[in-house]
Amino acid sequence: MRVFRKTLDRVESVPKRRKLPKIEVKIDPDDLAIPKEDHRAIKKTKKKTTRKTKTKKARKPRKSAANQDDNDIPSQPPANFWPMYNLIKKMRAKVKAPVDKIGCDHISTAVSGLKEGPVWRFQVLISLMLSAQTKDEVNYQAMKKLQDYFISHGYKNGLSMEAILDTDQAKLDELIYKVGFHHRKANFIKRTAEMLKEKYDGEIPKDVKKIMEFPGVGPKMGYLFLQIAWGICSGIGVDTHMARMAGWYHWVPKWQKGKPEPEYVRKCFEKMLADHKEEWSVINPTLVGFGQTICLPIAPRCDICTISRTGLCPAVDKALLRRVEINRRSGVKSPQKKSRGDISGLLPNE
Predict the structure, then answer these.
(1) Which residues cross the membrane (predicted)?
(2) Nearest-CA neighbor of 123 among 168, 152, 163, 160?
């Protein structure tokens, strides 16, 4: 209370400010007026102000497979290619991947039992068209659904060119709705069947350029079709798994952003393996199966990969290896992850 009273006394002791008298100043308006001539002079002498605009630097166009110069494509594989590739082939012999059982070279026979003939070749082409941006397991389900539907509607061989021509596009879209981009693929398949009947009398040609004229068919599908259906190996089929791993392993020159394009990787592989054409038909299922089971796009299984401790792979998950080693020393079992295939041949014996 004493402190409060002291502060109150101080406030009351402060003298009040006196109000100052108002002073009126009279100004003649004519004294402030500016002649018209002076106005013109001021406008003339006024400087023009211009905004400084920053000039944006033109972006360099990203290199694509179409504008890649032949000099950018290596003629020899890098030093780590053959050691890594040979080890991958040894691991693949111990692993069963989806591509080994229901890949595009097996799927048509698996659903229809056919192994040759125009209908079988048509089924191979359709399975390749459905496989884009789609897992082998989903592709198999779509092919099986098409085969069962057409068999139940009186078509002896099931999925065939005649069956596709007689089916409405909306119904076809409904049958393949599980695959990626099913709307576009339904349209592509209908148009392909029409082109096949009009231009080639129902038989798919043996020329990759003619095969790539079908809507939705690119180099990967074209070269793989020739290998599977006609036994012609004129190029390497490269998919996203192969392009991703080629970038990770530094098997192709460094890309500007992201993973290299499959078409660019195809050109690199064909030039690097020009003297080893026996690998052209082998490298696709080898790397695709490895990418499906071991070298996954997310959380790769470096813990069971035999390359991870050799120093050959630049993409090793070292943190994972350290965790596995700590668990081993502590006697703790590392958690087992689900796999799309059978990888028991690479798992350590307990």
Answers:
(1) none
(2) 160
